[in-house]
Design a protein that fits this description.
Blueprint (H helix, E strand, L loop, with lengths): L2 H4 L10 H24 L7 E2 L10 E5 L5 E3 L2 E2 L2 H14 L4 E6 L5 H13 L4 E4 L2 E2 L1
Parallel strand pairs: 1-7, 2-5, 5-6
Antiparallel strand pairs: 2-3, 3-4
Length: about 130
Amino acid sequence: MHVEDDADVPITGINVTPLVDVVLVVLIIFMATAPMIARRAIRVEVPRVAKSDKSATDALAVALNGRRELTLSGRPTTLDDLKKVLSAATAAKPEQAVTLSADKTLPYGEVAELLDAVRSSGVRKVGLEVRRK
């Protein structure tokens, strides 16, 4: 075969180098943004904010309203009963998540006390819930 004959042969192979380059760039972008996305998944229900995400559907909802009434998944409860229920839930499912909602008018100390009670019952995944402005 001569050099002139090579010019007439059609290219039948696919050059995958640009595809690999694009895939690697996209992978790096996802790796860089994944920690930011994971941090935004934790929610807080105290003040209103401009941006927020939806809470996990399998999380237990603990709420403390402005009248200092404590509820677990919509049912009234006491702090001692809450600890017992959460301890049983974490014994059954160690990765049990809890979303904590508190009225923004409550003193910080009361919310911190509730958060401490939730954490002391064995819950390791606690999200504080917020509402969008």
